[in-house]
Structures are given as C-alpha cells and as structure tokens.
Design a protein that fits this description.
The structure holds 2 protein chains of 2 kinds. Chain A has helices at 2-18, 20-41, 47-80, 83-88, 93-108, 110-123, 132-157, 163-169, 171-177, 191-196, 199-212, 216-248. Chain A is mainly α. Chain A is elongated, with a radius of gyration of 18 Å. Chain B is mostly helical. Chain B has one domain (7-16, 28-255). Helices cover 79% and strands 0% of the residues of chain B. Chain B contains 11 helices and no strands. The mean pLDDT of chain B is 88. Classes of the chains: A mainly alpha, B mainly alpha. The A-B interface holds A 20-21, 24-25, 28-29, 32, 35-37, 39-44, 79, 161-162, 165-166, 168-173, 175-176, 181-183, 186-187 and B 20, 23, 25-26, 29-30, 33-34, 37-38, 40-42, 44-51, 83, 166, 168-169, 172-173, 176-177, 179-180, 185-186, 190-191.
C-alpha cells in the first residue's frame, strides 16, 4: 500500500506538472485573483493586506486544483474505463485516490511562487517572511490538509456521473467560507463556525501568520488535526459510496 | 426544409448531447451554483474593499456567467465531437456546415439567457439589490446581445477543437481573464490602458458597461451605442468562427488529424 501511495503521488505530480490545463490553473488563476484583489484593495494603502491577498489567492488555487484535480481525474477514469479497475484493485480505494488529491495540493503550492513574484514585480507587494521556518512547514502542511479535504469530498464524486461539474461548483463556496480573500468579518456571522471545519481556513492562517507574524504553529496544529479527521471520515465514506456505486453498477456510466 | 431541420433539430440535439447537461443534476452545479457564488464572492470582496456597490458586482458577474456559458457551451458543442469520436462522420455528411454548426448557437444563446436570469435573480435576492421592472426588461435586451456575442466567440473556440484537443483550456483562460479585463469586477478606470484595450477586443466589456447604465435607469437610446459595438464584435467573431471551421475542416482532412485524440 505504501508503494502504491508513493508511486501514485509521483505519477500524479508529474501528470499535473505537464498538463497545460493544470499549469494554467497554477500560474494564471492565482495571478488573476490576486490582481483583482490588488486593484480593489489598492486604495487602502496597506502592503500587509496586499501580501495577505497574494497568499489567499495562492491557497484558493490549492483548493481549486485539489477539487478540480480529483473530480477531473475520476471523471477521466470513467471515460477511459479504468475506474472499475481501480475500485476492483486489491487495495483500499482511498490509497488510489489520496495521491491524486494530495498531489493536486502539492502542485497548487507552486502558485505561491506565481502570486508572490507577480505581486512583488507589478504591485510592489513586500516579500518579507517573518518566520521562514514556520513558512516552510506551513506550506506542505496546508497542501496535505487541503488534499485530505479533497479526498473526503472526492468520496461523493465516486457516485456522481459528472464529477468534474460538481468539483467546479465547489470552488467558490469554500473560498468564501474560509476567508481567503474576503475576511470572515464581512460575511454573515453563521459562516464563521463553518470555516473552523475547513482546512483552507487554517492552512491560509498558518501561511499568513508565518509570513506576517502570528500563531502559525497553532494553525498548523489545526491543519494536522483536520488532516487526521478528514482521512478517517474519507476512508469510511469511500467504503460506503464505493459499495453504493458497485450495487447500482454506475462506475462505468459517463 | 432539410437545411432548417439540420439547423433547428440537429442543432438542439447536438448541443444537448455535447454540452453534457442532459440531466439537470449536471446543469445545476456548474451553471447555477458556480456563477451565483462567484457573484457573492466578488460582491463581498467589493464590500471589504469599499469599492462600488453590490449592484456593480451583480451585473458584472451575471455577464461573466453568460460568457462562461457561451464559451464552454458553444466550444464544447463543436469540440466534443472529437472526444466522442463523431467528428469524422459528422464532417463526412453532405449537410450544410452553416446549418450544422450555426444551429448549435441558438441553444447556447438561450442557455446564456436562462443562466443570466437565474443568476441575477438569486444574486439580487441574496444581496438585497432592487432593480425595477422597466430596468429588467432593458437588461434582458443587453443579455441577449451579450449571449450572442459570447456564443459567437465560443464558435471560434469550437473551431479550434477541429485542430486541437483541449478547447476547455482556451475557454477557461479567456473567461478567467475576462473576470479582470472586462470590468466585471474592477472599475475600468482602475485598470491599465493595455488591459482595457485587450478587454475591448473580446465580447463582454461593452455589454457590461451598457448593462450598468441600463440598471441605473438609463434608456436603451443612451446605452444603445455600447450594445451596437457589442453586437458588432459578436458578428465579427461569428464570421471568423465560420471561416475557422471551414479552414480547420480542410486542414483536418488534408493532414488526416480529425480522429486523433
């Protein structure tokens, strides 16, 4: 199982790195969102706010890649007729699926470079990192936690014929509820408690606090806790939904 | 008679099959949930930045939803022929290419209109934006013009599908750029000149500008020139799309690449 997991990780990181669609998502989309935020927030004259917006846009891309990568990969496997083979393989389906979602998160972390460089070159956003060590740990921790959230949501994709469409629809709600570009204080109060259960909230806070100064390690602790919880829930959900899909014989439907 | 049958019946059938939304459960997440939350996201970002009103973002993102529908809908309605391995048989038929491909634009325009109406209605309800009946009627005209222009642009993207594999990449990239360059989410006066020039060369910018005037209570006469420019841009892309379809069909036959995937 360990070998299957790491082989899967290696293959999917390679695939996402050479796929033009994913590459455009890593480079273009975070720059677009960061640029919109820069143009809108420019009037506030707060360099830290602009750096925070850069980091938020990068975490948005991480989530987008995870949810689009996992849903797209599942839908592709349906079209190629390999989903049934994966489900029938003598290992838990989670071991086949987790590398896809985690690899998406890892590749999504590249977008940090894109947004930070873009912000520094065009908008004079400062590039000072308060705690480089915490920053270096926070990025992979966030990628892992967001990848695990993707694994949990991917469980539902198994029973959904057009998984990619569902993945597309899940981007903005999570971006809003986790306060990545829009602070939670602007949103209705009931959104706050929802954000506590979503990994991008803590991943973004960890990266932002490491860059600007703040309790980054506490945020990383929440990321670690959520990673474990997500994995446990995903393992159960995947088993249930897999059985459901087998019983209804829908794994092959496109 | 056969031309009309291919145009209307063939167009609708092909569009439904190739846009992959025969089931409403497929249609709902991507064409209702996505644009609605996109509107909310940017409206709240605008509130945080103290830039413009909710109505500004509601109108802007409603029209971005039209663009997404037109680009992906029309693009896929042509390009997915390759994925479903029906491109070669379709091009081998003696049917008029004009009827064959132009027939797919009507359902795309209708879808754009429907998506815009639902996104605008739900967004206005949630954000508490109040637009009068007369303004809504005038906005409907702008929506039709923009749906046409975006569908025409989508036809160009679909034509690229006769040559390349991944039309979604172009549609995704261009619709993403329009979030910024069309003025949907950033007031045009805040954008650099080169970005505004770029945005004005593709559909949406003039349509959005016209719609904001109409939503503010101005008459069709006041905003008409912007809608005419939008319609003219759409017409240019429609002609370009048809030319590209003819060119790439010829190239595909010559190089035997219609079935490669």
């Amino acid at each position: 199982m360990t070998r299957a997991f790491f082989s899967g990780m290696r293959i999917h990181v390679k695939q996402f790195t050479v796929n033009a669609f994913d590459l455009s998502a890593v480079v273009l989309w975070p720059i677009l969102y960061a640029s919109i935020a820069y143009y809108l927030l420019d009037g506030k004259n707060d360099p830290e706010l602009l750096l925070s917006a850069s980091l938020g846009a990068a975490v948005m891309t991480m989530w987008a890649l995870v949810v689009l990568g996992s849903s797209g990969a599942l839908e592709n496997q349906r079209w190629l007729g390999t989903l049934e083979l994966l489900v029938a393989a003598p290992m838990p389906f989670a071991v086949a699926l987790a590398p896809i979602t985690i690899a998406s998160g890892v590749v999504g972390a590249y977008s940090l470079v894109a947004t930070l460089a873009w912000g520094a070159l065009l908008f004079d956003v400062p590039l000072s990192i308060e705690s480089p060590l915490a920053f270096a740990v926070a990025v992979p921790m966030s990628a892992l936690a967001i990848g695990m959230l993707g694994l949990m949501t991917a469980a539902t994709f198994v029973i959904y014929r057009a998984a990619f469409h569902l993945g597309v629809a899940m981007q903005y709600p999570v971006w809003i509820a986790t306060g990545l570009l829009v602070p939670l204080s602007v949103l209705p109060a009931w959104v706050g408690p929802i954000s506590w259960f979503l990994a991008p909230t803590w991943g973004f806070r960890a990266i932002r606090d490491a860059a600007l100064g703040g309790p980054a390690w506490t945020d990383m602790g929440m990321c670690a806790l959520l990673t474990v919880v997500y994995f446990a829930v995903a393992a159960v959900c995947l088993r249930v939904f897999e059985n459901f899909a087998r019983a209804r014989a829908t794994l092959r439907l496109t | 008679m056969n031309w009309l049958r291919v145009f209307f019946v063939g167009g609708l059938t092909s569009y439904r099959a190739l846009f992959n939304w025969i089931s409403p459960w497929v249609f709902f997440p991507v064409l209702i949930v996505y644009p609605l939350f996109q509107t909310l996201f940017f409206a709240y970002l605008g509130r945080f930045a103290d830039v413009q009103s909710d109505e500004f973002f509601l109108v802007g993102n409603t029209f971005v939803a039209i663009a997404v529908t037109g680009f992906f809908g029309m693009g896929n309605a042509v390009a997915n022929e390759r994925r479903s391995q029906t491109l070669a048989p379709v091009l081998a038929t003696p049917a008029s290419r004009l009827a064959l491909f132009l027939g797919r634009t009507l359902p795309s325009i209708a879808t754009g209109f429907f998506v815009a109406a639902v996104s605008f209605g739900l967004g206005a309800l949630i954000l508490g934006v109040d637009v009068g009946g007369a303004e809504l009627a005038r906005l409907a005209v702008a929506v039709i013009v923009c749906s046409f222009a975006c569908t025409a642009f989508g036809l160009c993207l679909g034509a690229l599908g006769l040559r390349g594999r991944n039309v979604s990449l172009f549609a995704d990239t261009i619709s993403g750029c329009l979030l910024l360059a069309s003025g949907a989410n950033v007031p045009l006066e805040r954008l650099p000149d080169w970005l505004r020039t770029l945005g004005s060369a593709v559909p949406l910018m003039h349509g959005i500008a016209a719609s904001r005037k109409l939503a503010a209570g101005e008459s069709l006469g006041d905003a008409g020139h912007l809608l005419l420019v939008e319609a003219a841009i759409g017409s240019i892309y429609l002609v370009l799309g048809l030319v590209l379809l003819r060119f790439f069909e010829h190239e595909g036959r010559r190089t035997a690449t219609l079935e490669t995937f």
